[in-house]
Each structure stands twice: as C-alpha cells, then as structure tokens.
Specification:
This protein is α+β, with helices and mostly antiparallel strands. It has helices at about 5-10, 75-80, 130-140, 175-180, 190-195, 255-260, 275-280, 310-320, 320-330, 350-360, 365-375, 395-410, 420-425, 450-455, 470-480, 485-505, and strands spanning about 50-60, 85, 85-90, 95, 100-105, 110-115, 155-160, 165-170, 185-190, 215-220, 225-230, 240-250, 265-270, 285-290, 295-300, 335, 385-390, 410-420, 440-445, 505-510, 515-520, 520-525, 540. Helix content is about 25%, strand content about 20%.
Length: about 550
C-alpha cells in the first residue's frame, strides 16, 4: 500500500543492510556486486519445542487494536496473531484460504465466499455469516472512520446468502478488493462483541473478540500487551508453540537494540539501522531477512512547479547517486530501485517477475545528461522544495543527497525541515503539502500484487499526493483490475509500471528486504512483511529441545 506510514522509511531502511534473490519476492543484490554475506528466506529455522512464553519488542505502543482502524506496523503486528481474515497471505507471499475455505466468482461483479465451519471466537461462540457481514460493512460506515474504507469503494452490497456463505456485489470488477480480503479489510470479528463494545472496541479497557491462535489477555497501557493461547483454534498446523506472548514498547532505537543484546526481550521486527551491524555480529541471537513489498521513493507533490515537466523529473532521477545514498543511509549495502513498486510486490506471478521486473534497466546515473535536460527544459536555477524531518537520520541522508544532486544539474533544491507530526500530516492532509514539491516516502503493499501500489497513482486517488493525472494510466488500471488471472494481470500491470517510469510522478530511490532479530532461546518466526497478517507468533517456539 502507498500510505501515510512515514515510520516505514525509518524502520525499513534498516533492512537495506541485506538484499538477495534467495526467494521469490525478495530484493535482488546489485548486478556484479559479488556474493552477499546474507540470504533472504521467508522463514527462520522451525521451532524445536514448546515455550511457556516469549517477549517481543515493538518500536511503539499500538494506538488501537480495532482492526478497522489499525493502519500501521505496531497494531497489525499484534493483531496478526489475534484476528484473522477471509484469506491469508503466507510467509512466501502467496494468498491462500483463511476463514473463507473457498470462493467463487459467478460473474465479474459478484464474489461468493464459503466460510470455514466450526471456527470459534475467543469467547467460545461459533463464527457465522452474520459475523462476516457485520465486520466488513462496519469498515464501509463513515462513522467508523476506517482508513480501509477506500477498499470498499466499488462494493454495492455485502449479504448473508447462507449460514456459512457471504456474497459481495460490486459496481464494477475489482480484483484488488478480493485480494485485500487477506489484509485488514477482510478481518472477521464477533458481531455480538462489536455491538456490545460500540466505539470502544479494541481499546485497552474493552479488548476484542476474534478467531486467531492467540487471544488478548491484558493491555497495560504504556507498558505491555500480553496474549494467551487460544486452545480452541481451528488450524492445527498453526497451533501455538508458545503459551503466551508479551509485547513491550520501546521507542528509542538504542534502548531497543540493548534489549535484544541483553536478552530482556527475545525478538522483534524492523530493526534499527543504527544497530544492525552490532546485532548481526552479536552472539546473543540472529538477524534474518525476509521478503518485502516496500520501496523508498520521492513523491512529487506539485505538478504546477518545476517538477511539472517530465524532463525535470527525469533529470533529477538521473542525478541521484543511489549507491552513495544507500552507503550513507545503510552502511553501504542496498539496491537501487528499478520502479516505484518493489520487486517483492510481484510475488503472485513469480514466473513473470524476471520478464516484467528483473528485465527493467538499472536506474541511470548520468549527471551531464541530467544537466542538459534541465537546460533544455528552461529550468536552470528554479527552486524545488523538499520536506525533511528529524524523524530519522535516513530522511536527512536522502534529503541532503537530493539537494546535492539538484545543485549539480542546475536546480535549487531547498530543504524544509518539519516536525515528525507535520511530516506525517503531509500524507493525510492536502493542506500540509502547500509549498512543497517533493517528499520522501516509503510504504508497502498489503498483498503481493504490484497492482495494489499502482492504484494510488490513479486520478483523484487519496494516495495520489500530487494529483497527477494520466487518462491512459487510468484506463490501463481498470483493465488490470478486472482481470482475475494473476499472470495476465501481471502483464497488464507492467503497462502501468512503464507509464509510471516514463512519466515519473514518483521517482524510485531504493528497496530492501524485511528484518527480524531472534534471540538464542527462540526460533520459527516468519521473516518477511507477511507477518502483518500471518499469525507469526504461533510458529515461534524453543530453539532447543
């Protein structure tokens, strides 16, 4: 998803210290760069025995555990183990049945989901079609204020058509809606609990009632969240190996790393880049790298200024020394991005990845040619304003590199420092973009389908921050989003990718795999971004028998 998660830039940059093609959906090492001293795989070694409990580090306390409002790493990392969706994204970036055991598409505008029988909520009641209808339609209600409401924009009705059957009727074909049933939009909770809790659902005092392998036990606000094993969980293959999971909240990167090294916490995702080398060399645990769908980009916010000319956008891209950006931001190891959507977002049709993504040329670095483009466009000396922030050192590194690149080719790139809160506002409040030409972004797809990224470049989309508009792009998107076959859809998405590369409404910078630290006493965790929806804690157990 291209979304307002600026912390994604801060945290995902840590993973730039590794890149490999060890699995489909992983980031490739640079061509000719030599053998990397790391690998990328979807899982860590399997658990060797059960555990009473383990402790997991989050970089921030979840602001909610309401599935309809969860829109960031901390809440989704917890909820992945508590609540479930109609479909499921697997660690190797596939989509498989979840609470829906099967689905049918009798016509392009109708989806019929057959629900899994005998699934029990944490309070012991049995899941029915009523729960599914209540859970999904709640996200469509403006009173809920769900950031996922846009996923339902083409939904006309969600109806119970049998005790264990739900039918979704669409105003037009929408493949992405179906795929997002594997993410937050497809979450199923108890309808009775929703009614009882009302607007307090998912808060520390009220809790939640779902079907996952763990249930919420306690939420000590400001301190920790503890989950307990759901003994009546339906999926025997994901029966929890540990009885309890305790989440701690540590915002300071150094303190968080010290927790890993001291053994006060057993593991955590999204490792601090400043401590990554130390964590990798430590004998206190192991750093693993997994598939990711994220890429760091420069999003154009104003197409009426100097960057309104495609030649100027192309010149700025050509002037970026991506290898030095990666060296300064992440210890010298990383991968220049070939396209706005990362390689990891192409996992649904891996047989097409080589042809449609890997075959793309490496980004051009040619300062002389870029300078000539600026001269021909009549843009010499024109001012471009780029937002920067103390939110993380990586933001400043990229901003300074862009400023230096601009100076080399005749553009006056001025940096506008803003507070962390104001930086986040750029992605949700159009008024916060006033006076800005560029912003450094990093988001991710919730599904392993690049079409999810490119939907945010459609005319008028909420995630189209600069209001870029291209009728050919919009038409190509509608064609791709109506194609249910993933291989054919990948080919159609490649046309969107090419338009985006030709026009550069978003300038690709770099991409990276995911990161996780596992202390010596635990193993079994999935390593990639699928952990946001896959019940990752259930597979973690003892590292020794």
């Amino acid at each position: 998803m291209r979304m307002p998660r600026t912390l994604a830039l801060v945290l995902c940059t840590a993973a730039l210290a590794a890149a490999s093609s060890a699995c489909s959906g992983a980031t490739n090492p640079p061509a000719g760069g030599g053998a990397p001293d790391f690998t990328v795989s979807p899982t860590s070694p399997a658990a060797r025995g059960p555990l009473d409990s383990f402790t997991w580090s989050l970089y921030a306390e979840p602001y909610t555990l309401d599935y309809a409002l969860a829109y960031d790493y901390p809440p989704n990392t917890v909820l992945a183990n508590v609540c479930e969706q109609l479909l499921r994204v697997t660690p190797d970036m596939r989509i498989e049945p979840g609470l829906a055991v099967a689905y049918d598409r009798p016509d392009p505008r109708t989806l019929v989901y057959a629900l899994r029988p005998g699934v029990r909520f944490h309070d012991g009641t049995t899941m029915t079609a009523d729960d599914v209808v209540a859970s999904l339609t709640r996200q469509m209600d403006p009173k809920t204020g769900s950031p996922w409401a846009s996923a339902f924009k083409n939904v006309d009705a969600i109806e119970k058509t049998g005790p264990l059957e739900v039918t979704v009727r669409l105003s037009k074909p929408d493949v992405l809606f179906h795929e997002l049933m594997a993410a937050s939009p497809g979450t199923v909770v108890s309808a009775a609990s929703l009614k009882e809790a009302g607007k307090d659902y998912g808060t520390p005092g009220t809790g939640l009632n779902c079907t996952g392998p763990y249930a919420l036990d306690t939420w000590a606000q400001g301190d920790s969240i503890t989950l307990k094993k759901h003994t009546a969980y339906w999926d025997e293959e994901l029966a929890p190996a540990s009885d309890r999971v305790k989440f701690t909240f540590v915002e300071d990167p150094a303190a968080r790393s010290n927790g890993f090294l001291s053994g006060s916490v057993d593991g955590g995702y999204l490792l601090p880049s400043s401590s990554l080398a130390q964590l990798r060399s430590s004998d206190k645990g192991t750093v693993f790298f997994g598939p990711n769908t994220a890429a760091a980009n420069l999003a154009v916010l104003d197409f009426h200024g100097p960057l309104g000319e495609p030649e100027v956008r192309r010149a700025l891209s050509m002037a970026l020394d991506r290898k030095n950006i990666i060296r300064a931001a992440a210890g010298g190891v990383g991968v220049p991005a070939k396209a706005p959507a990362a390689r990891g977002a192409w996992a649904l049709a891996p047989e097409k990845t080589a042809l449609l993504f890997d075959a793309l040329p490496e980004p051009v670095y040619d300062v002389a040619a870029a300078k000539e483009l600026v001269r021909e466009a009549g843009a010499n000396g024109r001012t471009i304003t780029l937002a920067t922030s103390s939110l993380a050192p990586e933001i400043s590194v990229v901003a300074n590199a862009v400023q230096a690149a601009g100076r080399q080719i005749g553009l006056d790139v001025r940096l506008k420092p803003v507070s962390p809160d104001a930086y986040s506002s750029i992605f949700v409040d159009p008024s916060a973009r006033t006076g800005l030409d560029l912003v450094i972004t990093n988001g991710y797809d919730n599904t392993p389908d690049p079409l999810e990224f490119y939907q945010y470049l459609r005319t008028g989309d909420f995630g189209n921050y600069g209001n870029w508009s291209n009728p050919a792009f919009d038409l190509a998107f509608d064609r791709a989003n109506s194609e249910p076959d993933p291989v054919k859809r990948a080919e159609l998405t490649a046309k969107l990718q090419q338009i985006a590369l030709d026009e550069l409404p978003v300038i690709p910078v770099y991409e990276a795999p995911y990161s996780v630290f596992l202390g010596k006493r635990i193993t079994g965790a999935p390593t990639g971004i699928a952990q946001l929806y896959y019940p990752w804690a259930a597979t973690i157990g003892a590292n020794r028998r």
